[in-house]
Structure formats: C-alpha cells, structure tokens
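Researcher: We're teaching a course module on how sequence relates to structure. For the next exercise, students receive a sequence and then see the predicted structure as tokens, so they can try to spot secondary structure elements on their own. Here is the exercise chain.
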Amino acid sequence: MKKERAIFAGGCFWCMVHPFDQYPGIIKVISGYTGGHVVNPTYEQVSSGTTGHTEAVQIDFDAEVISYPELLQIYWQVTDPTDAMGQFQDRGDNYRPVIFVANDQQRQQASASRDALAASGRFKDPIVTKVEPVQPFYPAEEYHQDFYRKDPSRMQMEEAGGREAFIKRYWSKK
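Model: And here is the predicted structure for the students to work with:
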C-alpha cells in the first residue's frame, strides 16, 4: 500500500464525503475545517465566518489503487468550479472551492487538471477554484463524520439542493 492524503473543499463537507468514500482505494474520508486562523475551531465558529476556515474533506487513499489525478476528476464532478463564494445552496467563504496541496507534485497535478477543465469549454464562466498549500486540518465534531450514513434522508435533501442538478447538467451527458 502507498498511503497518501488529499484535502479538498467544495461546499458542505457532508456532501463531499460520499462521492469519494465509494471508490476502491479510499482508506478514510474525514470531514473537517482548514485554511483559517483559529486553532481547533468548532462548527459554530466556522459557520460564523470569522475564523477564515472552509469546510473540507481529508482523504487518505492508497495511491496504488486510486491516483491523485483520479481524485481530482471526482472533485471536479461534485463541485461547481465557477462559484468562488459557496457551492449550490451553501453560501459564504467557509464553503469556497479549494484544492489544498501538500507538495509540488500535487500542486502541478491540481493546476494542470484545473487548466484542462478551463480549456475544455465545459463551463462558460471562468474556473475560480483555488489551489493553495495545505494548512492545519481539524476534524469536525463526531456528529458530522459519515453524515450520509447517519442521516440518509437529510443527505438526500442536501444533495437535491443543487449538487445533483449540477452533476446532471455538466457531467451526465458529456
């Protein structure tokens, strides 16, 4: 096994776990907060918009089974890379789309992937997803972990809030 880690922000972390969790090679997906200036923030603090954090997922994966570029492809399909101030029904800086990179290789792969998406013509608006260095990641409270399994009906409501329509519009037919 070749264990590696990726950190992606793309709206509510509840909705970011399941798309990654279902693939072979994914070891663990943790909901949490990153990119801010408060040590070990709470959900309430992050939601207030005063900590600078964004909701994100930390993905531990076996790079011999699933590659970082494959994770990037999944990421692009479940986030709106043209919306800098939130994702779908989730609005605010704490829901901004960011790929947090741990090293030069991840930076190069993330930037190349973003550039390829921009050149594809799939979106009429510019791609605004940021590529930033990894910052401390703080796991969210336990009730946020694996939320799609804990409350499937609530997750269905969250997904219906825009992410499903986005996927159908931009990815299902192309």
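Model: If you want an answer key for the exercise: The chain has a mean pLDDT of 86. The CA atoms of residues 26 and 138 lie 19 Å apart.
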